Amino acid sequence: MKVIMICGSRNPDGQTGHAVDALTDGFRSSGGEAESYYLPTLKIDHCIQCEDNGWGICRKNGVCLIEDDFAELVDDIRQADAAVFASPVYWGDLSESMRAFTDRLRRICTFEGARVGIEDKPVMGVCVAGGVGGGSLSCCMSLEKVLNTCGFDVLDMIPVRHQNLKAKLNQLRLAGAWLDTLLKARQERV
Ligand SMILES: Cc1cc2nc3c(=O)[nH]c(=O)nc-3n(C[C@H](O)[C@H](O)[C@H](O)COP(=O)(O)O)c2cc1C
Question: What does the domain layout of the chain look like in residue ranges?
Answer without folding.
Answer: 2-189
